[in-house]
Amino acid sequence: MGPSKAPEIMLSVPLYATSVDIWSTGCVLAEMLEGRPLFPVQNSFQQLEAIMTLLACTPEDVIAMNCTLTLLKFMIVFQPDRRISAVDALTHTFVGDYHDPQDEPVALERITLQYDDDSSFRPQEWRHIILASVQEFHRRLAQQAV
């Protein structure tokens, strides 16, 4: 299985929300369907670029054709607040037969993660590096479209 870190984790967002788990679950589901890693990369920069490539190149009408892919469409979304919630995902047609609301507790509070990063970069430096990488990616993507 390849890396399945949600984009916000790579961007050092300190609040851990269920959207992180939804992202990871979507990655695992996609890997099970494909039989190969969704993001076969070596590092976070490559993964972020692979995520942007996947999300920029996935036609909406193709994704919507299949029930499973429809669920993935809601799980593999760059913006965490736009991902399907765990509660809604559990009621989706693809997994609805296994849904048991009596045995699926919901956390009432968000969890704050503490990162133990021994790299030489501070979080602000990482954000700057990743932002520059994202901007360069979009610049190259725009050049290819011309």
UniProtKB/TrEMBL annotation:
Q: Which residues form the Protein kinase domain?
A: 1-95
> Where in the sequence is the signal peptide annotated?
none
- Which InterPro entries does the entry link to? Kinase-like_dom_sf, MAPK, Prot_kinase_dom
Keywords from UniProt, A to Z, are:
ATP-binding, Kinase, Nucleotide-binding, Serine/threonine-protein kinase, Transferase
List the molecular function annotations (GO) for this entry.
ATP binding; protein serine/threonine kinase activity
UniProt xrefs under Pfam families? Pkinase
User: What is the protein name given in its UniProt record?
Assistant: Kinase-like protein
Q: Which organism is it from?
A: Exidia glandulosa HHB12029
Q: Species lineage, top-down?
A: Eukaryota, Fungi, Dikarya, Basidiomycota, Agaricomycotina
